[in-house]
Write a structure and sequence with these properties.
mainly beta
């Protein structure tokens, strides 16, 4: 998805409402395709709110939900996850072959701790929103 496509899709989603999002990530040769429910929440006015918990001086907000990172030269969509709606569903692939979560986690170790309340997805990884 491009920045312009995302901004057009965002225009049709009311702030605070839940919406479906599909994205995929490629890491160490394995692909993770995820479907989840999220929502937009105003975070840009709180400078210290980022997924890692500390401010990154290389970031520039484009609007209330989109941030540009000068280090990676990528735009990211910041969303709030939810535990009250449908959980995220992920499917894992090695090339075109579907693999189990356990096989994926042998190569890509899972993050420790609870699911983040705020997460960022590289806009280029978003496949569908809304």
């Amino acid at each position: 998805m491009t920045l312009q496509e995302l901004q057009k899709a965002k225009a049709n989603i009311k702030r605070g409402c839940f919406f479906p999002i599909r994205y995929e990530t490629l890491k160490n040769g394995l692909t993770k395709k995820t479907k989840m429910v999220a929502r937009f929440v105003q975070y840009s006015h709180i400078n210290g709110v980022v997924p890692s918990g500390k401010k990154n001086e290389n970031e520039q907000w484009q609007d209330s939900d989109i941030v540009f990172n000068a280090n990676t030269q990528k735009f990211y969509l910041q969303i709030a996850t939810t535990n009250t709606r449908a959980k995220s569903i992920s499917t894992y692939y090695n090339g075109e072959i579907e693999i189990t979560k356990e096989e994926y986690e042998q190569v890509n170790k899972p993050r420790k701790g609870d699911k983040p309340v705020v997460m960022r997805i590289a806009i280029e990884n978003i496949r569908q929103i809304g």
